[in-house]
Design goal:
single chain, 211 residues, alpha+beta, Nucleoside Triphosphate Pyrophosphohydrolase, 2 domains, eight-stranded mixed sheet, three-stranded antiparallel sheet
């Protein structure tokens, strides 16, 4: 078994032209690019619209002592369909502004969206949710929930946030995962990670708190 490494890197793409196509709540650029081919040579020029959303972080607050998770419920316009509810159960997340650290955003968003104070953090994953058309990279963490406010409505009125806070046992959240009741990518990834590593991390965090 050999380790995987991409054959090409950023230097194997040429951005020939960059145009601002839209600039509003988010922005869209139209790029003309070419890139190397696996069999040698370069592609012809390709035009692609690129959704510039900015990078984001997400955190799954978890109390390792009670083994309960904090999740939030809010309206999502992208899920607006005739037969489905556009309200989603999610982990806490937010956009990383220029000059901000991931950990600073994690703590701020946990407070704003869930009324939750976090202690220790552990990284989960870094991924692109839709790299075919969107530049966004998401970096996920699990955070030690030191306090929470389940049943309250949180969020910033200036950002039109209306967020209901939930606190539920890990076993229940993982059962919802298995029953296809979690329908957004960052929460799916975080819960899958917790299903694989939660027992180990819980033992480590509880043991280190006893020292």
């Amino acid at each position: 078994m050999t380790d995987y490494r991409p054959r090409y890197g950023a230097g194997d793409v040429e951005v020939m032209r960059r145009e601002q196509s839209f600039n509003g709540y988010f922005s869209v650029e139209t790029l003309t690019i070419r890139h190397r081919l696996f069999e040698g040579g370069w592609t012809l020029p390709i035009r692609r619209e690129l959704f510039q959303r900015g990078d984001a972080v997400g955190v799954l607050p978890w109390d390792p002592f009670s083994d309960e998770l904090v999740l939030i419920e809010q309206f999502r316009v992208g899920a607006l369909r005739e037969q489905e509810s556009p309200w989603m159960l999610e982990l806490v997340a937010g956009i990383v502004e220029p000059g901000e650290s991931d950990t600073a955003v994690v703590h701020r968003e946990a407070d704003e969206e869930a009324g939750c104070t976090l202690g220790r953090l552990a990284p989960i994953a870094t991924f692109y949710p839709s790299a075919g058309a969107c530049s966004e990279q998401i970096r996920l963490f699990i955070g030690e929930a030191m306090s929470a406010r389940p049943g309250t409505v949180q969020g910033l009125k200036t950002e039109h946030e209306d967020i209901l806070v939930h606190q539920l046992p890990r076993r229940q959240a993982l059962r919802m995962l298995d029953q296809n009741e979690i329908n957004n990518g960052h929460t799916l990834i975080a819960l899958q990670w917790l299903a694989r590593h939660g027992d180990r991390l819980r033992a480590e965090w509880v043991a280190s708190s006893d020292v």
